[in-house]
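Our working data are protein records whose layout never changes between entries. Instead of coordinates, the fold is spelled out as a row of discrete tokens. Here is such a record, shown just as it appears in the course material:
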Amino acid sequence: MELETKRLTIKDLSMDDIERFSEYRNKKEVANYQSWKQYPLSKAKQRITYCLKHPFQGKIGNYHLGIYFNHYLIGDIFIEIDGQTTFTIGYTLDSAYWSQGYATEALEAFLNYMRDVYHFKICLAYVYEDNERSIHLLEKMGFELMNKSWFYQDILFRKKLD
């Protein structure tokens, strides 16, 4: 799978991405809004190995795709598909690339791809309630607040793709 935008390429991760994947995911400001505090090389290798064995094909399962700027990995998209019409998305972007429109560009292209190629109708996204940047991004893209989890301190957003 390879998707081109004006500035970005969204495609399968490779073993060459292990160090870079771990590097930006290990940044304190990046990990602060994720489910991990550290992302060692061993975890990056394990995840990318899984992704290579289970390439993205729009079917039930979970996947990661890399977001590349000039062939340089700047982030990733996580996709979990558990049905025919709905999928959950997550995203991680190196903080050096925040506030430059890269996340918006990548997510818009990917959501359109999922709608046009695989005919998905709804996208879900969970975000920690203190992640103001991500909440703003989702709202700007037309996601609607669905639910708040007081236990996990996250918020569920939904976007209709049709």
Q: What stands out?
A: The chain has five helices and eight strands. The longest helix spans residues 102-118. The helical segments are 18-25, 28-31, 41-53, 102-118, 132-140. The mean pLDDT is 95.
